[in-house]
Specification:
This is DOMON domain-containing protein. InterPro entries: DOH_DOMON (IPR045266), DOMON_domain (IPR005018). It is a single chain. With 221 residues, the chain is an alpha+beta fold. Bound molecules: protoporphyrin IX containing FE.
Length: 221
């Protein structure tokens, strides 16, 4: 009996601790190319400033993707390059066909874009709204948790300053933790006083109560 009760309580404790906490700024890193994706939520809670940096050859691109899952298709992509002469940062979308690579979004929903090329180190910067006005399905809103995909090392071809072709990545992957930004609820999403809290404080309270129940039951048996 006590084993069963312990198992049930352990499941509760594990799920309480596993709840995602949100962040206003942070970074994810991958060993390959010393890839770093960092973010900082603006104080208005509506826009996020992003920075992506990696060691990669002059004529190659770097990208970050936001997705509901951990595979390349159906991913919102921001991709850019700087070969010392030409540069670009685009809002793109990975469709169903991996080999096609990311296609340009007709509606660009990034702002304040810039790039830096410092020897082997390529950095792209951009700002994007958490909730995109692009409702065509080619952007993922960041007011809920999203997987973050990383990729770099594909060749970039420029013609007259415009990108005309992107080659496949030399390295790619998915960060283990999801990106969970502390989004400001829109007026229609304002939680009512009766709504269950999901903050980390609530998680700690859950754990404390369940631990107390566990100790109480253990004392009885
Ligand atoms: C021209 C651009 C691209 C091409 C041609 C391409 C092509 C491919 C192909 C053929 C695969 C399967 C083989 C493999 O595992 O390597 C793949 C996998 C993958 N790609 Fe890409 N890709 C491109 C851009 C991107 C971008 C921009 C991202 C994310 C920011 C990305 C993320 C991934 C990931 C995470 C996988 C492994 C998971 C999966 O198979 O879905 N790719 N890609």
């Amino acid at each position: 009996m006590i084993t069963l009760i312990s198992a049930v309580i352990f499941c509760f404790l594990t799920s309480a601790l596993a709840q995602q906490t949100c962040s206003t700024e942070g970074q994810f890193t991958a060993a390959a190319g010393y890839y770093v994706f960092s973010w900082s939520l603006q104080s208005n809670g509506m826009y996020v400033d992003c920075n992506v940096s990696v060691n990669t050859a002059n004529n190659t691109w770097v990208a970050v993707g936001f997705s509901e899952n951990q595979i390349m298709p159906d991913t919102d992509v921001i991709i850019g390059a700087n070969d010392g002469t030409d540069e670009f940062v685009d809002d793109r979308w990975n469709g169903a066909d991996r080999r096609a690579g990311p296609s340009l979004d007709p509606m660009q929903n990034i702002m304040d874009t810039s790039t830096i090329r410092d020897g082997n180190r390529l950095t792209i910067m951009f700002t994007r709204p958490l909730v995109s006005p692009d409702t065509s399905g080619r952007d993922e809103n960041l007011d809920v948790c999203r997987y973050v995909l990383w990729a770099f090392g594909g060749t970039t071809t420029f013609e007259n300053g415009d990108v005309t072709a992107l080659g496949g990545h030399s390295n790619r992957g998915v960060f283990p933790n999801q990106l969970c930004l502390c989004a400001t609820p829109t007026p229609t999403e304002t939680p009512t006083p009766t709504e269950t809290p999901t903050s980390s404080a609530a998680s700690v309270a859950n754990v404390a109560v369940l631990t107390f129940i566990f100790i109480f039951i253990a004392a009885i048996f």
